[in-house]
Write a structure and sequence with these properties.
The complex is a heterodimer.
Chain A: H1 19-34, E1 38-46, E2 54-57, H2 62-71, H3 75-82, E3 86-88, H4 98-106, E4 111-117, E5 123-130, H5 138-141, H6 143-190, H7 194-208, H8 212-222
Antiparallel strand pairs in A: 1-2, 1-5, 3-4, 4-5
Helix pairs in contact in A: 1-6, 2-4, 6-7, 6-8, 7-8
Chain B: H1 4-21, H2 25-34, H3 41-49, H4 56-72
The chains are: A alpha+beta, B mainly alpha.
């Protein structure tokens, strides 16, 4: 039986934990629950919306995961694409991913199991590099481990996205405030409407090819338009 | 005054500039809010799609957002304001 059915579910304080640290925790937690079957565990997350992929791996899987990432191919990538587990029960008979298979044999891996996580909208898969033969019951036994990992990755990505949106909005509101101040100065000095003050700022922005925020900041700091 | 022809011209001008710069709707909305726009993202979507009338002041906020994005990419601001399109 894999893992302890009474074990605590994976608990992560998302507000205090960078996304990469969450992914590290996920692979370490998953590996702990599979010991002594597993020699290394890797995790790849695709379609993050930030460009590129995110990866995490335990020490025994770091170099093996690089083979998957370098070619954007391997059991994990196939598991994400097909939304199905990918098993390599016998490395000698596997004709795909030759460099990965060679490196895995050198690391005394006997089987590989890649399982997609349910973490939409991102695509993610966890890869177990096993030191023992692949039992047919293993997939079912791994279900709680995969469910925990799916939830943790989905929550971590959602939290990171919200943080990014919040940072962008904070920046937008700061710009808006500067432009509002600058408009107020122009309205008071020239006895013009808010619309006319905006027109003055935007014409200056266009003429000088500078962002409206920068034009507004100049006016506030120097008391005059550039 | 904004005629149907001007409505089309405003939308095509914004859409062309967005496409040319690879600017997505979410980023445009953030830039629009940053320069003073107050409509929700779904309303801006409706304005761009022609499901709501695009008022000159809203057009100018959107034009400014795209121009600011151009400047941040090191390009010249390219989108004319409403009065430069022939509006009054």
């Amino acid at each position: 039986m894999i893992g302890d059915p009474q074990s605590e579910p994976l608990r992560i304080a998302y507000h205090a934990t960078p996304l990469t640290a969450v992914l590290d925790t996920v692979v370490r937690s998953a590996e702990l629950r599979l010991l002594p079957l597993v020699r290394g565990t890797g995790l790849v997350v695709l379609r993050t919306g930030w460009g590129g992929e995110l990866r995490a791996a335990t020490a025994g899987a770091e170099h093996l995961e690089l083979f998957q990432s370098a070619s954007a191919g391997g059991p994990a990538f196939e598991a994400i694409a097909d939304k199905q587990p990918v098993t390599v029960p016998n490395l000698d008979e596997e004709r795909r991913w030759r460099e990965l298979m060679t490196a895995a044999r050198r690391a005394h891996i006997t089987a590989i199991l890649a399982i997609p996580l349910d973490a939409e909208p991102v695509g993610a898969a966890i890869t177990f590099y096993l030191g023992r033969r692949l039992r047919s019951e293993l997939l079912e036994e791994l279900r709680p481990v995969i469910d925990d990992a799916s939830l943790a990755v989905a929550n971590a990505v959602a939290f990171a996205r919200h943080e990014l949106v919040a940072a962008h909005l904070k920046d937008a509101l700061e710009s808006r405030d500067l432009i509002g101040q600058a408009k107020g100065m122009l309205m008071a000095r020239r006895a013009i409407s808010s619309e006319k003050a905006f027109a003055v700022l935007r014409e200056m922005s266009q003429r000088t090819n500078r962002k409206l925020r920068d034009v507004a900041q100049d006016l506030i700091e120097n008391g005059e338009l550039p | 005054m904004s005629t149907p022809q001007l409505q089309t011209l405003m939308r095509e001008t914004l859409a062309g500039a967005m496409q040319g710069m690879g600017l997505d709707a979410d980023s445009l909305w953030r830039g629009y809010v940053a320069v003073g726009g107050s409509e929700l993202p779904r309303v801006v979507d409706d304005l761009l799609a022609g499901r709501q009338t695009l008022e000159p002041n809203e057009y100018d906020f959107l034009a400014q957002a795209i121009n600011d994005h151009a400047v941040s990419l090191g390009q010249r601001s390219v989108v004319p304001y409403f009065h430069q399109l022939g509006g009054d």
